[in-house]
Amino acid sequence: MKVEVDEIHCQGHGLCQMTSPDVFGLRDEDGHSYVLPDGANPTHEKSARQAAAACPERAITVTSD
Ligand code: SF4
Question: Which side of the chain, N or C, has fewer Cβ within a 10 Å radius?
Fold first, then answer.
């Protein structure tokens, strides 16, 4: 699985991290999202897709292998 956050479109709402804390973290400096080191583990796919659907900016892309 591949998980990407479009940094241009991410506005730091934080919904992804609330929805899927195993996949996403929020940067201290601007609150924008990043993918955690183990975030793309396939065991998190359902959660990652829920976060992608929850993102108001449609900034998250989840791709299956
Ligand atoms: S929900 Fe979307 S806009 Fe908000 S922090 Fe996550 S990726 Fe960024």
Answer: C
How many domains does the chain contain in total?
1
Q: What's the chain's average pLDDT?
A: 97
Note down the domain range covering 40. 2-63
In percent, how much of the chain has pLDDT > 70?
100
Q: What DSSP designation does 41 have?
A: -
Which pTM value belongs to this model? 0.95
Residues with CB under 6 A from ligand 1: 5, 10-16, 32-33, 55, 57, 59-60
The closest-lying atom of ligand 1 relative to the alpha carbon of residue 15 is 1
